[in-house]
């Protein structure tokens, strides 16, 4: 293994440990750095940081150790399958039906991170993680190549990156080793500046190139007559991509758009909101063991003898802690306000649009979870219960 790959493997391992210890997974500055650097430098998250990417690489190396021959997807099929993860990204952004949310709850990348953080997941999601890990013995990064919509998002962000992998056409001997070792099945030998949205900057091609400096990472080589033409376009696109992402990072603690929903639920408006009639299995990704551990959530929490006032409580959501403020008036729950959550906005909004209203209406945490957002639902319910228990 070349020196650069040893460094990469070591950094992947470090970030795996950081994820396990929770130092990285909710660290806003780290995520902001990734989001800002990607449009400039390309995708480094997938090959240097992502824990599930590391596991796929680990199994790939294990396959090499046991002399298992790596297979490549035929080019004709590859050209079709390569669009899968972008289609999935589009569906996740545009389609809001329970079936989609339930299917996405099996995402092995997300569930592996949850597993590292000590959250219980279902047998089904564990099986999915194991399947992709075992397939990695025979194919490099199968999940990253065809199904990871997070990687697709980063890839699209980096499409006009000013720094990338470059090929010196004058010294290239067309041995095609770069194509063979590329885990993302990119035909590097046909590029001068590698601008593929599939590229994850693993530098396997650079490490295995037999001719020194034929492949390198650096500033894109524009032809002089095109440089002035593309530079303003590049700057504008980088600004348009980066500004919304930065805004989203620093507003993640208040995930609801105030123009669409209020994140404060008052008893006076409760009759305008229908009671949830959705089921408890978002989530097939919710393990029966986790449900058992959260049985206390399903019990009513009395507010008798609680002094009027506001109380905060915290519990674990889908991606981290959810903090709520519960206001008691006349010994009844009057309002519930979500103060902080790091869950994905689209999933969290489904739970937050229903659960607080249902709790206030029933004056109990014994309410149905929202299909497609079970973890966020449980997080809100447990946080409310935590606040009430602290108030006693």
TrEMBL record:
User: Which Pfam families does the record associate with it?
Assistant: Fer4_10, Fer4_5, FMN_bind
Q: Which InterPro entries match?
A: 4Fe4S_Fe-S-bd (IPR017896), 4Fe4S_Fe_S_CS (IPR017900), Electron_Trans/Redox (IPR051684), FMN-bd (IPR007329)
Q: Does the keyword Transferase apply?
A: no
Domain 4Fe-4S ferredoxin-type residue range list = 163-191
| Region (Disordered), start-end ranges | 267-314
Renumbered to this chain, the Polar residues biased-composition regions fall at 291-314
Work out whether the entry's keyword set contains Ribonucleoprotein: no
Q: Which Gene3D superfamilies match?
A: 3.30.70.20, 3.90.1010.20
Keywords, in A-Z order: 4Fe-4S, Electron transport, Iron, Iron-sulfur, Membrane, Metal-binding, Transmembrane, Transmembrane helix, Transport
Q: Compositional bias (Low complexity) at which positions?
A: 276-289
Bilayer-spanning residue ranges: 12-36, 42-59, 80-104, 116-139, 230-250
Name of this protein: FMN-binding protein
